[in-house]
Amino acid sequence: MSTSTEEIKRGSVFEVFWTALKLGFTSFGGPIAHLGYFRETYVKREKWIDEKTYVDLVALCQFLPGPASSQVGIGIGLLRAGVLGSIAAWIGFTMPSVIALIIFAYAVGGFELANQGWLHGLKLVAVAIVAQAVWGMMKSHAFDRMRGTIAIIAAIVSLIFSYVFTQVLIIVLAGFIGLFFLSKSGQSPSTNIHVPVHKSTAVISLVIFAGLLIVLPILTVIQPTFLLSLFDSFYRVGSLVFGGGHVVLPLLQSEVVNPGWVTNDQFIAGYGATQAVPGPLFTFSAYLGAVMDTNMNAILVALIAVIAIFLPSFLLVIGVIPFWNVIRQKQQFQSALMGINAAVVGILLAALYDPVWTSSVNNVYDFVLVIITFSLLMLWKLPPWIVVVVSAIGGSIIGWLT
Fold first, then answer.
1. Residues of the signal sequence (predicted)?
2. What does pTM read for this prediction?
3. How many domains does the chain have?
């Protein structure tokens, strides 16, 4: 099988930053919803990458520890504008929620957000966003009997066995099924994307990732300063959490509450605030850094916490993507990818139910708002940010009615 290398039209770093910034202000609903926003923006509207490359990238990031949706955004920025583009994509997508959570830490403390109607509306729009993503990806990657069956089984297993490593095991098994039972004949090959990162740079990035994971705990014993301990704790969490999102919470709690850096009440209040802002849940680290009782500048501590928890994602994405792009062209791996991509659709389908649906849809009014927002996305093709605003208003109205 021969494939030609596609030189993706390179964009400017500012273009990547501006596009990611708009997503950072409007991407409510958690990591699964973020993948829907990314697909609509980067694949459908901007056409920076094709559908197959996007789904392959999502599958890759499911394997990596850390926040999968943020890693997908970093990867797209890398392909579009190099290493600086990956940084710009991360800053743009992450900055709005970081700023909001630092302000929250300063200004409103433990203000109760759980019963706010507009926040409920933002949770409901996530249902429509994820449903749109599942439908679109199913049409592309689980449209025949075999792959559709893989997707359904993956969804069932994800729902029944909701453990940390379940998703990784599902993807591995789906890859083997694809390798032995799915043929690439008649399928269009994956585009061989030119990755603007040399393999030597990738190797250095992976060495730094592993090196920091080993060296930082040793340094904290030799020179036990607060900032070094802080960086070590958040870097370790970002390096070792599979599944991202809510999975990070118990590890973060043990890292910051047990040493006495943050009280349990502060931790819970910050988690509530994190649900109210767009962007990745890992920006919870900004709030935690800002409320720590130290003699240092709270903003500085918050930024160090954010950088430490996201740094492993940068190093892994930069280190893995150049090799991933080569491997995904192999015919055997393409067959495996067919199974993996179908499994990813099933995992998203499971996530559409739990936690997206189960944590949002409580009554008939909620379901009506989901139908409305889904129609605005699918039938009227409105931009996601407009649908987000409509859903926030609708959530407030539901709050008054119930």
1. none
2. 0.79
3. 1
